[in-house]
Amino acid sequence: MRVDGLAQAQQRMLERGVPQQAIDVFSHYYDQLSAGATGMIPESEVEPLTGIDRAGALTVSAHEVRAAADATVVIKLNGGLGTSMGMDRAKSLLPVRRGQSFLDIIVGQVLHVRRSLGVRLPLVLMNSFRTAGDTRDALAAHPGIEVPGLPMDFVQNLEPRLLVDDLTPVDWPADPELEWCPPGHGDLYTALQTSGMLDQLLDAGYLYATVSNSDNLGAAPDPEMMAWFAASGAPYAAEVCRRTLADVKGGHLVVRRSDGRLVLRETAQTPAEDAELASDLTRHRYFHTNNLWFDLRVLKKTLDERRGILGLPLIRNRKVVDPADPASPEVIQIETAMGAAVQVFDGATAIEVDRSRFLPVKTTNDLLLLRSDVYGVGDDFRVRATVEPPLVDLDKRYFGTIADFEARIPHVPSLAGADTFTVRGDWSFGADVVVAGDVTLDAEQVDATAAKTGDAPGRGTRVVEGARLG
Question: Model pTM greater than 0.70?
Fold first, then answer.
């Protein structure tokens, strides 16, 4: 049955026009999946990461900076739809600062470096089949961002979702597009080659790539880090940050005992019995930011030698075929993580960066902070915190989706003086709200207080405006 499943999946991919190399990569992981591979990385096989460079201590010359920036390409992963926040188009098109989207700010960051150093520095997006159209339309509003002779994007490959029961491709006539998925961001390397983008960049004289997620505005193009990577001679480098209690569930780098190579271990690759050690901040001090660097020449050579299969660890991602229907069939998405390529290249390294290079927006909690006065955007389009960011916790029932969030927060409150801001229940925020110190808004508590005093309990959305809270 599972042999039939692979044949069916391969046929569908051929009919969809998926490149043969991408089909070969999918088949490689399908064989692992059907053999029962889990991709687990037990604690007994690894050591903690120690003794790495720190970005703040870099010393580079102006000549090195300019030369490296002129040989570097900025690649942004732009395949996400923001479905966890109820979106149905590229998350990068969501307004985040004064009507500017993630994409608008990224374009501004790239153009600033170009103009200040007089370098080419192309911006290239890896889109998915679901984000390419809208993103290309949005880029038309920035006519100066393109580099002559280079496309501005390439499209991630796609693969069939597989039924959990027998690993055959799922059929979902109600929405056939839900039968397909991207193969995780580890497809970056395959898609660079199958799209022709890798050869085009090398032919145009580019040597290095700096890669990050489009929803992480902290990962601005950094010319000094470009010079560091060029001078390091490393084929690959990962940016890591010091872990805090907020980072215990994220991926982190470890050192494999058998050969001393750096390895990325995601939460899903950690055995349950090792969870406590894996989350120990004194043992594993760094988390992986998903910002990375690689030498384009080494990548091409390695892909050619391995016939397009880098051999990244398998990630077995279990979902339902229709996110809007929890009762729909369970499926498996075969995925890999791009950061796992750290184990592929001889001499791969890591560098510790400041927390300011890690500002991802994964929830509406993050979005509220980014839109607030906690952050500012400079003339260089870099996003910087003006104060220590507070902890924000909005009630997912009423603020979890973008539509609900924007309906209830048409005016962003001031959070610069806040330490924590917790909202429970249905609240709406008007103009001139200031949050200071530790603030909790709890609708149930308000109702209980009203009942004790004989007042009628509140109903519907509670409105806060023109108030100082805390």
Answer: yes
